[in-house]
Amino acid sequence: MRPRVEEVRIQGLGVIDEAVLELSPGFNVVTGETGAGKTMVVTGLGLLFGGRADPSRIRPGAERAGVEGTLVIEPGGRVAQQVEDIGGDVEDGELIISRTVSAEGRSRAWLGGRGVPVGTLTYLADDLVAVHGQMDQQRLLQPARQRAALDRYAGNDLVKPLRAYTQAYKRHKQVAALLDELTTRARERAQEADLLRFGLEEIEKVDPKPGEDVELRGEEERLSHADALRGAATGAHAALLGDPMQAIDGARDVISLLGEARAAIDAVRDFDAELAGMADRLAEAGYLVSDVATDLAAYAESIEADPARLAVVQERRALLSGLVRKYGEDVTGVLEWARSSAARLTELEGDDERIEELTREHEELTARLTELAAELTRVREVAAERFGHAVTEELAALAMPHARVVVQLTRAAEFGPEGVDEVELRMAAHPAAPPLPLTKGASGGELSRVMLAIEVVFAGADPVPTFVFDEVDAGVGGKAAVEIGRRLARLARTAQVIVVTHLPQVAAFADQHLVVEKASDGSVVRSGVVTLDHEGRVRELSRMLAGLEDSELGRAHAEELLELAAAER
């Protein structure tokens, strides 16, 4: 199902107080007397699809202008999905869009019942409407649209090479990204590898052993306090066992005291078993104290001040501390870092072959893309030539016999998703004029006719659901006006067309005729937009032809126009 605008309500815009437009899926024409507000219909449609909000367009005395549109869209289609993605509602295939503009210039927009930025309407409009007016030429003035339309116009000739190019381009982009990542990371990885090598070499040079830091810490403590440790052990030994070299009468050591205590108890131990047990314990204490005294003597003998060894231990501990500060909490952590870093270094040194493979593939893909891009350019050049001739012929029939449209292809600096061609439509207003971009080569009215010619040639190739034309017939009449009507009708076979016109030759080709009625006070009444039946169309066309609704000559001419248009539709 093709999306279309079903109904538009306009309030407080220009001379329009309130108006409702009920539109058909085909060719809709809007007519009316000068100043009745026909152009405000296009302005309202422009607002509905994200156009610039101009507070000066608000009806005098009104606080705001508002436009609400009901669109019929395909449920589950692209537009419906876009609306649902932002939280809007599409009910039974109908989408409501609304826009208000306050007298202070504030603008608000709603899409499917949800408030949205105005830019969202503009984005959505790309898939829904093409507005061609004196001040608003949107869709086909966008370079990307022009290339896409030309590609569709080229047809099957471009399908196969474009598909091959697209596949090669995607792979080329993937390979380039991988290669860029690897080569960019190669510098980082090389730096990382250098740091790892330095660390591993530093650790290997020191060659730490598991638990070495703990052992050296203890040894340094002993060597640093050797005299105090030896003195303490000697004093303790003397207290336990005495010093026979310095015996003093009356000196009493622990062993002697334990011996006296044991002797005192041994004399009476046979009289009480409990006391005998205590005597045995005193004997054990004597043996234990004697062993400790012996060990203290040996310990005192082993402790020697050794400044040279102390310096060696301190130097070794300093080396180990340097490693710990960099690579781990202790020597065990340093050894673990060395193990994992060696594995990482092996991994880092394994990408060279991968880079060589990707570089080779990238070069092959670049050569392939160059060939395919050249083929795309060739096909587009043929289509551009054909298209330029077709549009130029259309312009001749639209009262622009000296105008010439060309499609200029320029080469982009880099490969793109669609090739290397940048497409721009240009027009020369007369044979001696150079082709200029459309916005510079044509006046407002001419540009609308150029857009009509382009849209007619592109019809079916660059489908858009709804076209809006304002002043497309400016400055023409007679046979040229009939040709404009024919082309609008032809365009309406594949899209909805809404045209504001003052020419009866154009209006006669419409499927639905709307007239904006002007009230006596210069405003448009609430029901100011009326859908005409056949008799109403005859009266309106007669007014447009002769200035009189009931002129017999005008009515006869109007009937003739309607019959001609009906025969050709």
Automatic annotation (TrEMBL):
Pfam families documented for this protein: SMC_N
Parts forming coiled coils: 348-382
Keywords: ATP-binding, Coiled coil, DNA damage, DNA repair, Nucleotide-binding
InterPro entries, per the entry: DNA_recomb/repair_RecN (IPR004604), P-loop_NTPase (IPR027417), RecF/RecN/SMC_N (IPR003395)
Keyword Lipid metabolism in annotation: no
Signal peptide: none
Transmembrane segments: none
Keyword Coiled coil: yes
Family classification: Belongs to the RecN family.
Function statement: May be involved in recombinational repair of damaged DNA.
Name of this protein: DNA repair protein RecN
Organism of origin: Nonomuraea roseoviolacea subsp. carminata
